[in-house]
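User: Just a sanity check before I run the rest of the batch. Below are the structure tokens for the first item. I only need the designed sequence back.
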């Protein structure tokens, strides 16, 4: 409550020309904005899953306020959460369906839009087969909507060429968990940040991207050792006790090296290994290829630090490793995830408070689509090709077994390839904006131009919607209801606070109504469904007995307790903080976790004379992805209105640029101009960092079509590029390669401990 009041104070001062009075729930509020009611909900941006209230006045959302009683955020919100209601009234909202007439998109009725799309889907199916329809979705719908969409695509439209932006994001974590532990599912809980003795953050810049997680670290009374592994001295690196600025894309070798040292020193947990894992002998042999000096050469992390890291992780009563995109977005993302899990298995750092290999989820409901979405697995973490599982699912939902797909269709990148080849003729894009977020934009744009039909379902006029033949106008967060599941498997309520604008409909209603345009489909897959609650009730039955068991949950219980962590069932009626405890076994056939022998591979697009610099891409706290939601919100956009390039002083000097100048960046795939220079020690020589949010400086023009073969996740984080100064007409180019020079990361604040370290030369 104190936090709530503090937050409001800021707003009150700003609005001081208005009269103030007490709100029974939240204290002093300007009368002009004083809500008539507060609606319980959950943040719709990132996977932290903060609990909040939406303040509604005269049918409009006027406030967003952290829920002080919520275990995830304890009353606080980051700037995006605090201003979330503002995006609802953005000028770029879609108010009705649209159909393309020549060059322009014109307003249409829902019946016209549904008829046009269903007729085209049917004729394409008849002519080329149903798999000529592709669907791309997201991690930002409600679970009830994901489940409804999955059934429509797989059982109604009968195409398995269905994937989502989660393949740009969490797919490597999913595939890594599966190959090591037998199932997807983040193993830990936020409370592990509160009780771990060692916290390792790998390729995870939580200070910008999951800011509220820092509160859980702050609650840790053990003064945990914080280790940050990132080639860039991110804001998160500033809070590290040990900052490990490894060379880009060498994490797998680093974790293999740490595993080597653990075994060499006898620091493994033999008792745990004997009872719980297979593959130790093979791993021991395989790791002989990763002795410390070799790993130091690959990673640029010195041998002494390697021993120190291994000792800290193995010796800690409880160690937590949390990772995000620096690990997942890689051509060896899946195996890097498994290398992290290997180390945790070897040291028995799993299944206990504070001990976990823990992926932090990106989007608000990426978990919901992983579990229910029907893309990388059958609903409820059932595997494709498992006949028993398919039969079980068919029986629960009363459909013939023949309808259940026996294999996964194309992954995101493969869908684009199939469009290029003319194999996929129609694409339905739901709540994702590939024309900013996917790699190799020129290639993507050319592929999309080949489609017979592009349908985009969005709440805003996105870059992709602008290109569509038909647009379905969707409601968004605050205008519809259902559940989100966050990084720690906590399922929470997101309630409807206001009506959608114009004729926009909830995604749930769109799927239900659209299914009625295909004969017999609605009756078969949505028997008597009317509201999202109907989908949730079926979802509970579908998950009963599965690892992601929702059967013991209810909406009412979620609101009362601020969300519930699955599995929640008769055995765990209040939910479960962590997986793979003595009560929850591994989901492999023999019930044991697998130690895997994993090979590090050098950069797949190495720097060359023409492209001597490594481009790293990522995020900033103020913006959300492709900015459809954040670009009109003053407190966010004013702080980060355009892209910038972080460049090391030595490189800046060579290019003769200073902060505030403009650069162009080129790669073998294209060129991006007009990027503001920020000279900084946070990036190493030969490396630059650019946020990917901005269509004005579309950085994914440069990124390669290079994917993890197991997960299909793109390698967004390393692109070989050339920098061109825009100060002189011809431009000055970077010379190649940079051989000498050392980078020193500076202390930025007396209170923040960051090790002053010298780095090995950056260019690989
Ligand atoms: N403000 C804001 N918050 C967000 C989002 C947003 O758009 N805006 N998006 C949400 C989503 S969907 C996601 S997926 C998360 C992403 O959250 P993060 O993964 O934290 O975000 P990124 O900035 O993409 O990348 C994280 C870090 O990986 C580092 N990195 C690059 N290459 C390597 C490498 O080879 N090894 C290692 N160890 N690290 C490397 C980068 O330098 C960067 O600091 O954020 C979520 N939260
Ligand atoms: N270079 C580079 N590229 C990256 C990344 C990177 O680190 N570097 N990160 C990747 C990652 S991790 C991710 S997750 C992706 C994100 O990439 P995208 O998914 O393309 O990004 P968003 O802007 O979140 O797109 C979501 C879309 O859904 C719409 N929307 C919002 N709410 C609703 C709703 O309720 N219903 C409907 N129908 N639509 C809605 C929004 O307006 C927006 O157009 O970007 C990836 N691209
Ligand atoms: S940390 Fe994530 S969930 Fe929490 S308020 Fe910020 S964006 Fe929303
Ligand atoms: Mo993501």
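Assistant: Here's the designed sequence for the first item:
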């Amino acid at each position: 409550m104190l936090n709530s009041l503090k937050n409001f104070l800021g707003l009150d001062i700003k609005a001081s020309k208005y009269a103030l009075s007490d709100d029974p729930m939240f204290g002093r509020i300007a009368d002009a904005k004083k809500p008539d009611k507060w609606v319980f909900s959950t943040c719709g941006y990132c996977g932290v899953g903060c609990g909040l209230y939406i303040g509604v006045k005269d049918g409009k959302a006027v406030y967003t306020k952290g829920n002080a009683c919520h275990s995830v955020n304890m009353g606080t919100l980051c700037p995006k959460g605090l201003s979330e209601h503002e995006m609802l009234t953005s000028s770029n909202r879609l108010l009705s369906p649209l159909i393309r007439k020549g060059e322009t998109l014109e307003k249409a009725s829902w019946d016209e839009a549904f008829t046009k799309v269903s007729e085209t889907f049917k004729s394409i199916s008849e002519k080329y087969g149903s798999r000529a329809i592709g669907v791309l979705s997201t991690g930002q719908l409600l679970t009830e909507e994901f489940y409804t969409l999955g059934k429509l695509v797989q059982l109604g439209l009968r195409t398995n060429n269905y994937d989502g932006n989660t393949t740009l994001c969490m797919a490597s974590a999913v595939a890594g968990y599966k190959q090591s532990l037998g199932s997807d599912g983040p193993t830990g809980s936020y409370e592990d940040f509160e009780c771990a003795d060692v916290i390792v953050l790998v390729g995870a810049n939580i200070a910008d991207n999951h800011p509220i997680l820092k509160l859980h670290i702050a609650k840790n009374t053990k003064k945990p050792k914080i280790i940050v592994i990132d080639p860039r001295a991110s804001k998160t690196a500033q809070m590290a006790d040990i900052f490990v600025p490894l060379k880009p894309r060498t994490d797998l070798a680093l974790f293999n090296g740490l595993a080597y040292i653990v075994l060499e020193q006898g620091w493994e947990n033999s008792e745990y290994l004997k009872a719980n894992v297979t593959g130790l002998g093979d791993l021991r042999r395989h790791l002989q290829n990763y002795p410390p000096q070799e790993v130091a050469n690959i990673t640029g992390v010195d041998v002494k630090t390697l021993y120190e890291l291994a000792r800290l992780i193995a010796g800690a009563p409880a160690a937590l490793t949390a990772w995000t995109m620096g690990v997942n977005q890689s051509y060896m993302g899946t195996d890097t995830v498994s290398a992290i899990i290997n180390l945790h298995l070897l040291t028995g750092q799993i299944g206990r408070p504070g001990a976990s290999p823990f992926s932090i989820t990106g989007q608000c409901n990426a978990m919901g689509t992983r579990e229910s979405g029907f893309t990388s697995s059958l609903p409820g973490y059932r595997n494709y090709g498992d006949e028993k599982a398919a039969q079980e699912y068919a029986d629960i939902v009363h459909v013939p077994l023949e309808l259940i797909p026996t294999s996964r269709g194309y992954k995101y990148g493969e869908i684009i390839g199939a469009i290029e080849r003319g194999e996929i003729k129609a694409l339905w894009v739901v709540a994702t904006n590939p024309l900013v977020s996917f790699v190799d934009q020129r290639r993507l744009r050319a592929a999309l131009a080949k489609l017979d039909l592009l349908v985009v379902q969005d709440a805003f006029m996105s870059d992709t919607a602008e290109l569509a033949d038909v647009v379905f106008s969707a409601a968004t967060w605050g205008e519809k209801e259902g559940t989100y599941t966050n990084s720690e498997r906590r399922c929470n309520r997101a309630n409807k606070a206001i009506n959608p604008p114009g004729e926009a409909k909830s995604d749930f209603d769109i799927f239900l109504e659209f299914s009625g345009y295909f004969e017999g489909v609605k009756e078969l897959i949505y028997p008597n469904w009317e509201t999202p609650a109907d989908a949730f009730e079926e979802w509970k039955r579908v998950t009963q007995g599965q690892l992601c068991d929702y059967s013991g949950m209810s909406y009412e219980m979620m609101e009362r307790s601020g969300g519930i962590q699955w599995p929640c069932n008769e055995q765990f009626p209040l939910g479960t903080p962590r997986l793979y405890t003595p009560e929850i076994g591994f989901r492999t056939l023999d019930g044991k976790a697998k130690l895997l022998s994993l090979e590090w591979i050098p950069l797949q697009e190495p720097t060359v004379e023409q492209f001597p610099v490594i481009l790293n891409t990522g995020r900033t706290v103020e913006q959300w992805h492709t900015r459809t939601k954040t670009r009109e919100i003053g407190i966010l956009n004013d702080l980060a209105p355009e892209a910038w390039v972080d460049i090391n002083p030595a490189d800046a000097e060579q290019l003769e640029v200073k902060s505030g100048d403009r650069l162009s960046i080129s790669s073998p795939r294209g060129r991006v101009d007009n990027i503001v220079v920020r000279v900084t020690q946070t990036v190493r020589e030969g490396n630059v960092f650019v946020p990917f949010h901005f269509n004005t400086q579309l950085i994914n023009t440069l990124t390669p079509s290079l994917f993890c073969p197991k997960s299909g996740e793109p390698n967004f984080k390393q692109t070989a590029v050339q920098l061109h100064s825009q100060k002189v007409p011809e431009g000055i180019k970077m010379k190649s390669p940079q051989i000498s020079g050392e980078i020193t990361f500076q202390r930025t604040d007396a209170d923040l401990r960051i090790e002053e370290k010298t780095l090995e030369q950056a260019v690989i």
